[in-house]
Amino acid sequence: xxxxxxxxxxxxxxxGAYSQAVKVGDTVYLSGQIPLNPETMEVVGGGVExxxxxxxxxxxxxxxxxxGSLEDIVKLTVYLTDLGDFAKVNEAMAEFFEAPYPxxxxxxxxxxxxxxPVEVEGVMVLxx
Length: 128
What we know:
This protein is an alpha+beta fold. The chain is built from 2 helices and 6 strands; from the N terminus they run βββαβαββ.
């Protein structure tokens, strides 16, 4: 199956050699999103809760551009520089997602691009 590159101005543009998402068949591989404002490409302020919400807002925009929504995500990987923020991710997910929730992993890391506290990537399956 050919791959289709997904791109939208409603989410931050890639800051490296990658695509916002790649679609193969009904599966969409969503690149990691960090809390960047898509218009300014600057990290949003206001604390980690605001930044986590921006990450999910960015992911939602890429999902939409691919023809789906957050509800179509089947797997998320959350990267946190402080695993103490895990509960805040759960709170944000309760706002952005409804049960049944996607499968998920949370990984503590030493550092993320632009020194942000959170990055989230995912896999979405359309027409499921």
